[in-house]
Design goal:
The protein contains ten helices and ten strands. The strands form two sheets. The protein has an eight-stranded parallel β-sheet. A two-stranded antiparallel sheet has the order 1-2. Helix content is about 40%, strand content about 15%. About 45% of the residues are buried. It is of the alpha/beta class.
Length: about 280
């Protein structure tokens, strides 16, 4: 399949989500806003934020400064753990809209499966979706056990599951489960927050860099895309933002995809949802 920076995936409700976007964790202040504006200029059309990131206002400012129309930018935010529960989630959502300066969100996620709260939180997301305040709803950091519990109580199934996913954390079981259930898997930290990029010493991986004339980061991102995932690499560096987007002019072979699968070592650069 041929991908471009404008490619999308169709979620279960037929709404289309861009396959490539910008993660904004730790992007703050004027420098963070400039990074978001740079990404939009390069062609990124998905911007992922969250209450926890404390940067929804700069995302909103970047949207105001861009020439890209609002209906062409897919905006995601997430309800944080301390805001979970039915009524608190509704209040948190309205605050996010205000911070972003928008009338609706394209995707709203439960950030983490907080025990004793996330089911009520999901019912709040269902209400927001039914009322047309958000175009799609989903979850983040949900593993199969969480998803199975959610599907038991949900009137509307999640359209997206956002988890950490990269060759060093290749959760094949979750990927296959989501694909079977019609849930889009969205990969955050697809570059391991940089922890593993400089640790790649394998001669065969270095051969891939030479073979495809691409950086390690670009190969890792392309691997994720070819598995059928949405990816949201983060960077504050304009040259890296541009480089991360230059992954649509090559294709990794089947054999090389399998080789990259073998890098899995269950490495979490963030918290482990199973713990």
């Amino acid at each position: 399949m041929t991908f471009t920076i404008n490619s999308t995936l169709e979620m279960a409700n037929s709404v289309k989500i861009p396959i490539f976007g910008l993660g904004t964790y730790l992007l703050t202040g004027n420098q963070g806003q400039k990074a978001i504006e740079c990404a939009l200029k390069v062609g990124y059309r998905l911007i992922d934020t969250a209450t926890l990131y404390n940067n929804e206002k700069i995302v909103g400012n970047a949207l105001k400064n861009t020439k890209v129309p609002r209906d062409q930018v897919f905006i995601t935010s997430k309800v944080w753990n301390s805001d979970q529960g039915y009524s608190r989630t509704l209040n948190a959502f309205n605050k996010s809209l205000s911070n972003l300066g928008v009338d609706f969100l394209d995707l709203y996620l439960i950030h983490w499966p907080v025990e004793g709260k996330w089911k009520d939180t999901w019912h709040a997301l269902e209400e927001l979706y039914i009322k047309g305040k958000v175009r799609a709803i989903g979850v983040s950091n949900f593993y199969i056990s969480h998803l199975e519990e959610l599907l038991k109580i949900a009137s509307i199934k999640p359209m997206v599951n956002q988890i950490e996913f990269h060759p060093f954390l290749y959760k094949k079981d979750i990927l296959e489960y989501c694909q079977e259930k019609g849930i889009v898997l969205e990969s955050y930290a697809p570059l391991t927050h940089g922890y593993k990029i400089n640790d790649i010493k394998s001669p065969q991986f270095l051969q891939l860099i030479e073979k495809y004339n691409k950086s390690a980061a670009q190969i890792m991102l392309r691997w994720n895309i070819q598995l059928g995932n949405v990816i949201i690499p983060k960077s504050i560096n304009p040259s890296h933002i541009k480089e991360n987007a230059e992954i649509f002019d090559f294709t990794i072979s089947v054999d090389d995809m399998h080789y990259l699968d073998s890098f899995n070592e269950d490495f979490h650069s963030d918290w482990d949802p199973s713990d």
